[in-house]
Amino acid sequence: MDAAQQEATARARELQRNWYGEPLGALFRRLIDDLGLNQARLAGVLGLSAPMLSQLMSGQRAKIGNPAVVQRVQLLQDLAGQVADGSVSAAEATERMDEIKKSQGGSVLSNTTHTTSGSGAPTVKRVVREIQSLLRSVAAAGDIIEAADTLAPTHPELAEFLRVYGAGRTSDAVAHYQSHQS
Fold first, then answer.
1. Over the stretch 5-16, which tens digit does the pLDDT of each residue have?
2. Closest-CA residue to 80 (of 93, 67, 68)
3. Out of the domains of life, which is the source (predicted)?
C-alpha cells in the first residue's frame, strides 16, 4: 500500500470513528466473534455484499450508505450484548439474526419480549439505541456534530443531546439518559 492509500485508509477510519463510534473493522470483527459468524454470514445478515463488507472493514470505504444497514448493525450490536450477558441463547440469536436480515430498517424488534426488562418496560439501552438509530438515519454523525456546533451558542442542552445521541458512544448516551431521568 502506498502512502496515498495509507492516508486515505486512515482518513476513512477516522470518519468511521466519528460516524459509528469506532472503525468498522473493529466493530464488525467484534460482531463476528460475539455472534459466532464469519464475514460472509455477517454480510448476508447486514444486506451487504461480501466485497462491500471487506472494503468497509479495511477502510477502503468510509460510510455505510444504506440507513437500513446501519440500523441492522445497531440491532446486531444489541443482540451481541444480549448474548454476552446471557439473556439470549445461541439458538435465539440465530433466529433473531434471521429477523434482522429480513428487516428494512425501523423498529424491527420492538414487538418482541427480548427488548424489554423483566417489568415489561423498554430497557434504557433499547430506548437510547432507538434515539441513536433515528438520529443516525436522518444524518451522518459529522452533520449532526456540525448542527450541534451551530446550536451550541444559543441552545447548549440541545447541542449536547445531538452530540451524545447522534455521534457518541451508546454507553455515554445511556449515562446521559439516566442523568436526565432523575
1. 899 999 999 998
2. 93
3. Bacteria
Its pTM stands at 0.57
Widest CA span in the chain: 56
Reading the block at residue 130, the C-alpha cell is 432507538
In degrees rounded to 5, what are phi and psi of residue 53? -60, -45
Cell triple for 5: 492509500
Q: Tell me the three cell numbers of residue 157.
A: 442542552
Q: Give exposure, 45-69, as e/b (b: 16+ Cβ within 10 Å).
A: bbbbeeebbbbbbebebbbbeeebb
- SS3 at position 61: coil
47-88 tens-digit pLDDT: 999 999 999 999 999 999 888 898 899 899 999 888 888 888
Residues present in the chain in total: 182
